[in-house]
Automatic annotation (TrEMBL):
InterPro entries: TB2_DP1_HVA22. It is a multi-pass membrane protein. It comes from the Eukaryota. It is found in: Endoplasmic reticulum membrane; Sarcoplasmic reticulum membrane. Residues 1-18 form the signal peptide. It comes from Phyllostomus discolor. The keyword Plastid does not apply. The lineage of its organism: Eukaryota, Metazoa, Chordata, Craniata, Vertebrata. Plays an essential role in heart function and development by regulating the organization and function of the sarcoplasmic reticulum in cardiomyocytes. Keywords: Endoplasmic reticulum, Membrane, Receptor, Sarcoplasmic reticulum, Signal, Transmembrane, Transmembrane helix. The keyword Transmembrane applies. This is Receptor expression-enhancing protein 5. Belongs to the DP1 family. One of its GO terms (cellular component) is sarcoplasmic reticulum membrane.
Length: 75
């Protein structure tokens, strides 16, 4: 019941609804305070994802070349 009340408060169509209040008083100040740390984490994750994608692409290209080479030998 408490959860339903909380969700209704968050979604209330009023200027002082819960979602806006939570964002302005808790979430936004937290992110502004820790913005540089969040940016660093996001950049590290982006770099790791790019490295992983590059490694996978390289392996797929090698596998395709090997597969095509094997097909030419068998024909």
């Amino acid at each position: 019941m408490l959860k339903c009340g909380f969700l209704l408060w968050c979604m209330a169509p009023s200027p002082s609804n819960g979602a806006e209040l939570l964002y302005k008083r808790i979430i936004r100040p937290f992110f502004l305070k820790h913005q540089s740390q969040v940016d660093n984490v996001v950049n590290e994750m982006k770099d790791k994802a790019k490295g992983t994608a590059d490694a996978i692409t390289k392996e797929v290209k090698k596998a395709a070349v090997n597969l095509l080479g094997d097909e030419k030998k068998s024909t």
